Amino acid sequence: MEIITKKDIEKLLKNNKKSIDIENRTIITSEARDLIAKNHIQLNQVDACLDNLNEGTNSSYSDIESKVSDLPKTLVLSLYYFMLKIRLFEEFTKSFRENEIIPGVFVHSYLGEEAIAAGVCSALTDKDYITSTHRGHGHLIAKGADLNKMFAELLGKETGYCSGKGGSMHITDIDIGILGANGIVGAGLPIACGSALVSKFEGDRNVTVSFFGDGATNQGTFGESLNFAKIFSLPVLFLCENNRYAVSTPISYGCSNPELTRRAKGYDIEAVSINGDDVFEVYNTAKHYIDKIRKDPHPVFIEAKTHRRIGHWVGDPQKYRSASEMSSLPDYDPLKIFLNKVKVRSDIGALDLEEINKRVAAEVKEAAVFAQGSPYPPKSQSDKEFLKEEV
Fold first, then answer.
1. Cβ count within 10 A of residue 50
2. Per DSSP, what are the bridge partners of residue 55?
3. 36-45, 125-134, 324-333: which has the highest mean pLDDT?
4. Rounded CA gap, 100 and 160, in Å?
5. Among candidates 30, 32, 26, which has minimal Cα distance to 6?
6. Per-residue DSSP letters for 216-236?
7. Residue 250 bridge partners (DSSP)
8. Please, are residues 130 and 348 in contact by the beta-carbon 8 Å criterion?
9. pLDDT confidence of 77, banded at 50, 70, 90?
10. Packing angle of the helix pair 6-14, 30-38 (nearest 10 deg)
C-alpha cells in the first residue's frame, strides 16, 4: 500500500511534473490533496479499476442477459419509464439541493444506479416488501411511491410522507411494501429478515428485498442477517448495490476481499454477480431468483455492480476519484445501455419512448410544483408523530 504525502507532491512539482500514478489502495494525505488541487495535478489510475468492476458480471445463468427480445413490450417500456422517472426526479433533487431549496446538508443521489431499482422492483408484486438505504429515492419510486409526497418530504413540507420531519433518508409507505429508507448503513438487513420471517410463518409467499451498498457488507448486521436468514430459510433477496465506494473509501481498500459474493457463499447462500447498469440483466436475474424464493423460501444474494454518477452526496467534491474515471462514467449510463439494447425490438420505436419522455417530465414537474406550493408543518406539530400515540 502506497502513501503519498505533502513532501512527495513538493518533490513532484520541483521536477516540473503535473501528473502522478496512483492505485486503488493508494492513500493520499490531506495536505498532499490540498497541493494536488491547488496545482491542478492529474491523478492517473493505473490499475483499471473500472474494468475490474465489470469483470465477471455475467451471472451464473449465461442466457439471462440475452432475453431482451423475449420480454413483453409493456414490461420493456415500464422499465424505461421507471428508470427515466428516477433520473428526472434525482436531477430535480440535485438542483433543489444545490440551490438550497431542500434544507439540511446531505442528499444522496441515485443517479447512475437507476437500472437496479427499476429492474428488481419490476420483478416484485405489490404485496412484496423492500428495505432501502440512505440512497433510497430510486427504490421508493420503482416500488410505486407517490412523487408528490416524496418531493414534499424532501422540502420539509406538511404534505410529505412523514409530514416533513423525516427528510430524504426516512421515507416509509408500508401500504405498498416500503419498510423504510434508512440513514444507518446496513440497518435494513435485519428489518428485512423480520419481514421475511413473518412471511415464512404465515406462508403468504411474499418476498422481501433488502437493498444495501458495498460498504454495508463490512457492518456486523450483514453477517448476522445472512446467517439468520440461512438458518431459518427466509424468503429474502439480499441485493448489494456495489458502486465501489463506501462514501469515499474504495472497495479495493475497504474490503479485504472485494469479491462480495464470496462473503455470502461463506454462509452457504446462493450468490451471483451481475452488471447492475443493464436493466435487462437486472430484471431477468431478479425475476429468476424471486420466483425461486417464492416457490421454495430461502435467501439469495445478488451483487449488482454499478457506477455512482456523482459524489456520495450532492456537493461532494470527489477528490478521491481520478479524472479518467469521471470521464468514463457516461459509458455506463443505464439509460444509454437500455436505448442501445432496445434497438433489437422492432415493436418499440421512437414515438413510444417520446411518449414516455413527455409523461415522466410532466409527472416530475407537477410533483415539484406541488411540493413547493405545500405549507410547512405548524410549530404546534413539531413534537408530534415521533412515537405511537395512545388512542
1. 17
2. none
3. 125-134
4. 18
5. 32
6. GGGSHHHHHHHHHHHHTT--E
7. 245
8. no
9. very high
10. 30
The SS3 of residue 302 is: strand
Q: How many CB atoms lie within 10 A of CB 199?
A: 22
Digit-coded pLDDT (tens) for 259-303: 999 999 999 999 999 999 999 999 999 999 999 999 999 999 999
The reported pLDDT for the residue numbered 61 is 44
Cα 331 to the center of its chain, rounded Å: 18
- Mapped onto helix, strand or coil, the DSSP state of residue 61 is coil
Q: Mean pLDDT score of the chain, rounded to an integer? A: 90
Q: What is the residue type of 312?
A: H
Amino acid at the residue 5: T
Integer Cα distance of 249 and 77 in angstroms: 36
Count, residues in the chain: 391
The C-alpha angle with vertex 146 and arms to 281 and 165, in degrees rounded to 5, equals 115
**What are the structural domain ranges in the chain?**
3-45, 58-375
**Cell for 230?**
440461512
Q: Is 23 in contact with 4 (CB distance < 8 Å)?
A: no
Between helix 350-373 and helix 73-98 the angle, nearest 10°, is 40
| Choice between 33 and 302, residue whose per-residue pLDDT is larger | 302
Q: In CATH, what class is 58-375?
A: alpha beta
**Alpha-carbon gap, residue 135 to 310, rounded angstroms:** 12
pLDDT digits (tens, 9 = 90+) for 189-243: 999 999 999 999 999 999 999 999 999 999 999 999 999 999 999 999 999 999 9
Beta-carbon contacts of 142 under 8 Å, excluding residues fewer than 6 positions away, are: 82, 86, 117, 118, 120, 121, 122
Closest CA to 145 of 173, 113, 120, 107: 173
CA distance 271 to 261: 5
